[in-house]
Design goal:
Molybdenum Cofactor Biosythetic Enzyme, Chain A; Alpha-Beta Plaits; homodimer; four-stranded antiparallel beta sheet; elongated; 251 residues; six-stranded mixed beta sheet; alpha/beta; 2 domains; 9 helices
Chain lengths: 251, 251
């Protein structure tokens, strides 16, 4: 019996990514980590720090995917509006979470600084915590939406705390091989192979390296044996095109 | 009189980004380049190589933004389906574009290889070309949608060919300054400054570097003078919090 796929959407919340000021690295880390846990990232959106946009995007995506993971906008400053938006998306109040508050109170600060910091203790009513192993304020989960920090090191720590706590589907495995061939030299063979393996994804990703064109052929699917057979067919096609299969990887 | 903002959405088409196999770098380049041309990237989506998803996403976003830029899926292999999807999104046929075909024919190849390569000459009826200064097959434009390659060097070349050919709005300029302060130490002052400058965006982006927490304060807007005045207020707030403003940048 085939196991149901478990899907996720990643929402990168932040003007700094859309302006080009910051190169996002969170999507890549989340995709690899969730992939290893049997959760497939099917879509990602980068959206600005605009209340109505965040609310609408959260509501649209949480209805479609098993899980939604957000990064960014949960700090103590005026532009950190993610918690407010998630509460609105779920139609609940924002409340002070005592565990986050007690973690924040452990570091002494003048009253005005503490008041700003306490913004980070606000979570939508009914939310549970996503631990923050770096020791800072926690993230939170409400239904199928996980709200994490934007700083990569903090996001990564928060995500790691979820290991083993999420539903998992079959892990998508991959086989890859590269060849110094123009894609079109092997396109016909690849099309034939793909046609014989419905349900397994055969991708061709061209690159240009050391003055030569090449392509990475990536096979992705959940059934190990079929992937291996398909890999052999792809290698044979590379040889038939007069080149040598290189850099074979199984993951 | 205020100039109207010109907006864009970027669609990154490719399973390899969603699987985490490849780190996207195209969004960042497009955002910076368009920003310099007075076009604001307001959203980006990373979507898989699935026909129905691409068609729906193109139709949804082209109705909302002035421009949509896609990357990926225009090569010669079976998994390159972007042109087919764009044609369907616009309800037109795919046709062979003679200029792309003639560029492809210049490099001799056996008939089967040439047939695969000719896939890259297919464009939606009515599309015009986006030049490819690397010498390879061109991308294309249909109405407000621009279709470019996924390989970063090729995408960058294609995008550069559009310089001066697009509508432009006011360029969003920025002022930034960093301080080794926890965000909450300055959050109150930032909130007050932001409240006095509606229409200018004041963002606070925390970082952790050399074992210290700091934050980058970024002011973004279109009116140079207001940005400069606001920058002075932010610097004063940093000094009032007992720290030294560092790394001031004007862009």
């Amino acid at each position: 019996m085939e196991q149901r796929a478990v899907t996720a959407c990643v929402l990168i919340i932040g003007n700094e990514i859309l302006s080009g000021r910051t190169q996002d690295v969170n999507l890549n880390h989340i995709a690899l980590t969730l992939g290893g846990w049997g959760i497939q990232v099917r879509e990602a959106r980068v959206i600005p720090d605009i209340h109505s946009v965040i609310v609408a995007t959260v509501n649209e995506t949480r209805a479609v995917y098993d899980y939604v993971f957000t990064t960014g906008g949960i700090g103590p400053t005026h532009d950190d509006i993610t918690a407010d938006c998630i509460a609105e998306a779920f139609g609940v109040d924002l409340v002070l979470h005592p565990e986050i508050a007690s973690r924040i109170e452990k570091r002494p600060a003048p009253p005005d600084v503490m008041a700003s910091r306490m913004r980070m203790a606000r979570v939508p009513e009914g939310a549970t915590l996503v631990d923050n192993p770096t020791g800072g304020p926690q993230g939170f989960r409400i239904e199928n939406v996980f709200v994490m920090a934007g700083i990569p090191a903090v996001m990564q720590a928060m995500l790691s705390s979820l290991e083993g706590k999420l539903e998992r589907g079959p892990v998508v495995l991959s086989r890859s091989v590269t060849a110094y061939l123009g894609e079109s030299q092997i396109a016909g063979a690849l099309r034939d192979i793909q046609a014989r393996y419905p349900g397994v994804d055969l991708g061709s990703y061209p690159f240009f390296r050391s003055d030569r064109y090449g392509t990475s052929l990536v096979i992705r699917g959940t059934e190990e044996e079929r992937l291996d057979t398909m890999l052999e067919e792809v290698k044979a096609a590379i040889i038939a095109a007069g080149e040598t299969p290189q850099d074979v990887r199984k993951q």
